[in-house]
Amino acid sequence: MSAPSIRLRLLTFGMRWVVKPKLKRTGTPEKANRSFERAAPLLFSKPKGLKVTQDGPSSRITVGTPIADRAILFLHGGAFVTGSQRSYRAFAGRLAKRTKAVVFLADYPVLQDAPFPAAPIAALKAWDHLIAAGWKPHQIVIAGDSAGGNLVFGLLSTVLARNERPAAVLAFSPWTDLTLSGETITTNRDKDPLIPVSRMQEAVDLYLNGADTKHPLASPLFADFKNPPPIFIQVGADEVLRSDSERMAEATGGAVDIWPHVPHVWQIFDGRLPEANAAMRKAAAFVQSSFESAKR
């Protein structure tokens, strides 16, 4: 096991002693969202040659010339409270550059604008727009991080039930169980340098607005997955959501890639953090091999 880089040590130190305490104190979803939107340009490294156009409910993002017939539908994270096409476009660009695919960064309402099931409905709308535009299911990889990973697996269950099988699924630290029953929510409570467990139930209650926590679109861990495609999940060993990733991989027959020392969704620091660069290279290799397999 390699030692963490100096950059990673500094990052986790700052998260543990500055960001995590701030998240514990943040008063409203609106305030949290404003803070994230201001910080996003500092978090994400914008790749050269990034091009963004609007395509229905999604931003169409490319870097260079993408390989034909390869699309990624990306659903951003943010605990259903933060995140947008604007704040995530640089990270989507990093993914486009790594995979040589066109990335469609979907839009969905955060909970303060519209609670569940508005977000999963919007995710399905983004998928249906691509299909209506001529994309075939086997030409699309569904990807997302954190709360976006929740939407990814809810969407996967829905489209599989319609016999629409995507090329693959890529998820970064997905939040798949809103019942909060994962073992590592307890065992990693103090180890996780970013997520304050004390605020998780509050986020769930605001997002679901009275809906059943075991609804398959709220907690896709409890959904059905008919003939799932290749699935690759990356998660940090010390994350409170590690159990969500491990159990989802088991439920879908997917692979889980566990990294030591890293914080929640460390991949967003691609271009600035060695461990993020390495993880993204591995994720991109999975995406590229999945597209090749789907063609056969």
Spell out the key features of this protein.
single chain, 296 residues, eight-stranded mixed β-sheet, 9 helices, alpha/beta, Rossmann fold
Describe, in plain words, how this protein is organized in 3D.
With 296 residues, this protein is of the alpha/beta class. It has one domain (6-295): Alpha/Beta hydrolase fold, catalytic domain (Rossmann fold). Helix content is 43%, strand content 15%. It is built from nine helices and eight strands. The chain has helices at residues 6-25, 29-43, 85-99, 118-132, 147-161, 184-187, 200-208, 242-252, 274-295, and strands at 50-55, 58-63, 71-75, 102-106, 140-145, 168-172, 231-236, 255-259. An eight-stranded mixed beta sheet has the order 1-2-4-3-5-6-7-8, with helices on both faces. Helix 4 crosses helix 5. The longest helix is centred in the last third of the chain and has 22 residues, at 274-295. The protein is globular. It starts with 5 loop residues before the first helix and ends with a helix.
* Helix and strand sequence: HHEEEHEHEHEHHEHEH
Task: Supply the number of structural domains.
Answer: 1
Strand count, sense and barrel status of the largest sheet are:
8 strands, mixed
Query: Pairing-aware structural class of the strands and helices?
Result: alpha/beta
Q: Briefly, what is this?
A:
This protein has 296 residues and is an alpha/beta fold.
How are the elements arranged and paired?
Blueprint: H1 6-25, H2 29-43, E1 50-55, E2 58-63, E3 71-75, H3 85-99, E4 102-106, H4 118-132, E5 140-145, H5 147-161, E6 168-172, H6 184-187, H7 200-208, E7 231-236, H8 242-252, E8 255-259, H9 274-295
Parallel strand pairs: 3-4, 3-5, 5-6, 6-7, 7-8
Antiparallel strand pairs: 1-2, 2-4
Helix pairs in contact: 2-3, 4-5
